[in-house]
């Protein structure tokens, strides 16, 4: 079981490579530029990872995307929630 | 379209992801401060610089929005964005700051031809 | 309580990775965990530059890492090969290379990639910021 | 697939475009020199590191191929590449160095699960 | 009339943005990572720019792609040819 | 004969832009043109670091730019704001910021963005490497 950390936007090589690497029990945290995924509720990873993919709210706020994430009903977490996921998952891989 | 002596600064990078946006806007502001007319074209993720709800960034990270708000004081009033790019990002003009001019994507090539000086960030 | 190892591979002001790593480190410590070490590799070596002088309204990341070290005695290791290539060196490396100046000093330590692997081995959690 | 103690190094960047490839391979070589078993997975443009016709680079730029050729000496003999990635790049195995193992894209997730230590470059 | 210099691979944001910006009389030089375009003769820019798009041969050679460019019958130029294009075109824009 | 202005925005060893720019500059000069100046901006400011110490089998780009300057008297201007933020400063800036060392020296000159615009104005051809 792996926690995937994506730092680049959907459509980037990093995002595509992560999508190839995600397995059934894995979770995904979207940070930095990856939070622009909030703009696109049709992005395949939302479906692929269902209830196990989250946007980092601090990075959404910084970029003015917090309202849009709420409107699109996308799951967010704060830094504390990010830490909780790293506690739960022994391994993490960052895609950049 | 007539040729213009204005400097065209193209902004293609999002806030906080790198320093491209900041340093591109700095170049635009310095040119304007030196009295050169400046036009801005926002492409791709550069459009995110215009989102009006932007916060101050992570602690200690400088926000971009105050710089965008300063453009008008420097007489930079051409902020071009293509309709297609907005649609691709699922954004409406309501989410952007005031003063943005929408153009069609097919006009972009013409804009570049029109300007004798271009800086691409 | 767990040991976290952090790998930082982005440069300040060119990448958001150092900011993310620093916020993450503080949050991990707030939760009662420990940070076993931070390893700076690739462009991340620029975090160690003592000559960094950002505008006053921006965080000085070099100073922020030192503060983290002072509060929690966290080792700050910098890959020597990545650093030398990018213009970062300690006083002893400066002497060895015949340079008049240096821009890496304690608590940042120049070290080899072996330290990175060792950090990964002894950390219960290993997180990369790049 | 059984869990392995080997370090999995993922290579995703092309030669000459940045230092990611070089510094990723360096990490793999150092781990191997310290006696740790190392496996390599090439994804996306990382596959270009395996092209056998690579030259020495622009004057003064170091070539990657000698480093790839050194992997075997360090007992790094697992060089995984996905068939799909090769196809996407319109490449055949003939253009790659010897010793590459083709896998299917759907096996990638399993490989990551299998390795307890991963470094992603 | 503009000389476009592309430094990133087809599929990158830089490449897509350049394709939006190219006009009828413009030329394109592909350098650095952009020479990986040699692998894909179906890339739209080949059609879009026809006889006015070139791969820098030094950068092809460095990456082991020179033979593939020949096999795919794609036009190359050396650094001297690149300079000639900058002589011909008053303006250039680099996409990175 | 024409005047070429070059803008370099990539760091050595992290981007191929400096290599491309240097090869381009030499080819332009070989053709009988002149290079009116090179301006280093964004991560390109790292080209000016006097502390760069790459392995011996790699080109030292700092030295290669100085050689270009010595042979052809080409101004090498470095954006001061981009440089300070990234840990690059001259002796006088080091004094102003209370730093013990500096890593930018002549023929590299710290200057403002006005110089970039001025270079673009007076060059018949202006080429960006990034």
Automatic annotation (TrEMBL), chains A, E:
Q: Please report a single Pfam family linked to this protein.
A: DsrH
Q: Which residues form a coiled coil?
A: none
Q: Which InterPro entries match?
A: DsrEFH-like, Sulphur_relay_TusB/DsrH
Q: Which NCBIfam families match?
A: sulf_tusB_dsrH (TIGR03011)
**Which PANTHER family does the protein's record reference?**
PROTEIN TUSB
Protein name stated in the entry = Sulfurtransferase complex subunit TusB
Q: What is the lineage of its organism?
A: Bacteria, Pseudomonadati, Pseudomonadota, Gammaproteobacteria, Oceanospirillales
TrEMBL record, chains B, D:
Q: What is this protein called?
A: Sulfurtransferase complex subunit TusC
Read off the InterPro entries from this record: DsrEFH-like, Sulphur_relay_DsrE/F-like, Sulphur_relay_TusC/DsrF
- Family, similarity comment: Belongs to the DsrF/TusC family.
């Amino acid at each position: 079981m792996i926690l995937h950390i994506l730092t680049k936007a959907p459509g980037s090589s990093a995002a595509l490579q992560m999508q190839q690497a995600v397995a059934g029990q894995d979770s995904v945290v979207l940070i930095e530029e990856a939070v622009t995924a909030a703009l696109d509720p049709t992005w395949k990873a939302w479906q692929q990872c269902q209830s196990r993919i989250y946007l980092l709210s601090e990075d959404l706020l910084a970029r003015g995307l917090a309202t849009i994430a709420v409107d699109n009903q996308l799951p967010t977490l704060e830094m504390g929630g990010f830490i909780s996921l790293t506690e739960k998952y022994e391994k993490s891989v960052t895609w950049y | 379209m007539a040729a213009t002596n204005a400097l065209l600064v193209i902004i293609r990078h999002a806030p906080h992801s790198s320093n491209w946006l900041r340093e591109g806007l700095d170049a635009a502001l310095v040119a304007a401060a030196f009295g050169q007319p400046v036009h801005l074209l926002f492409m791709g993720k550069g459009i995110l610089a215009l989102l009006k709800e932007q916060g101050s960034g992570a602690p200690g990270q400088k926000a971009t929005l105050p710089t965008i708000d300063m453009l008008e004081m420097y007489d930079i009033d051409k902020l071009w964005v293509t309709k297609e790019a907005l649609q691709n990002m699922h954004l409406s003009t309501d989410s952007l700051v005031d003063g943005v001019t929408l153009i069609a994507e097919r006009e972009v090539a013409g804009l570049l031809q029109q300007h004798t000086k271009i800086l691409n960030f | 309580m767990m040991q976290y190892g952090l790998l930082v591979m982005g440069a300040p002001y060119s990448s958001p990775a150092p900011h993310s790593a620093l916020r993450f480190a503080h949050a991990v410590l707030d939760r009662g965990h420990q940070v076993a070490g931070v390893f700076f590799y690739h462009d991340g070596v620029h975090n160690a530059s003592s000559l960094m002088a950002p505008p006053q309204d921006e965080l000085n990341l070099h100073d922020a890492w030192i503060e983290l070290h002072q509060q929690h005695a966290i080792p700050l290791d910098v890959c020597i090969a990545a650093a030398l290539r990018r213009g970062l060196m300690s006083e002893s490396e400066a002497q060895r290379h015949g340079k008049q100046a240096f821009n890496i000093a304690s608590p940042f330590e120049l070290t080899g990639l072996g330290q990175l692997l060792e950090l990964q081995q002894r950390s219960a959690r290993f997180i990369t910021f790049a």
